[in-house]
Hints:
The chain has about 210 residues and is α+β, with helices and mostly antiparallel strands. Helix content is about 20%, strand content about 45%. The longest helix is centred in the N-terminal third of the chain and has 35 residues, at about 1-35.
Amino acid sequence: MRFNHARALVARNSWRARFAAGPIAALIFATTAHAQTPAAPAAIARMQEPGPEAQRLARRAGTWNLMISLRPAPDAPPIVWNDLVVERTMVGLFLQEIISPPPGSSGPDFRRISYLTYNRVEGRWQYVSLDTRFPAGIMPAYSADKGTEREIELQFEPLAFAGWGDSVDGWMLRSNYVINLQSDDRETAQQYWTRADGSGVRWLAVQYEYTRRR
């Protein structure tokens, strides 16, 4: 009797051990399997991966020659800056552009600095520029959509401009910015201005003509 009782006790304890170990073993297996499965990239990481738009921007990096034509009024003759130097580099997903006079230039020194990127979260292009030649401050611009492979159109936030006379006019200006990618070695950009004076006159005020240096 004592032998049978002991054998039954051992069997019962063995069954309890298996019953208790079952959920623990299942939990350990599930945890290990989950740890071995690579997690999907977080949303921030996915949005930081270069898409086709960033890859097209990267192709525009390098050194370029530039001519800028500025018409301060619809009937004004253009003010032309020739043989400007453009240095473009990728900073993350941003195309940084720095325009300056060529070395040894007799004209005044200046910098025009801009950043262009495609915001994958918003699904549109973002742009910002500053130009040390003019007291226009920081100039942000945005596109309505992704545009095409050859053309991007952005709209600047309205800004107050000092005017061209001796007195500060402080007139408001609306401006767009249209980039035409003709090839990997040539592109143009145009700005049409509309002065907030009630006339509704819109004119081609600034034109940029880029040619890649060889």
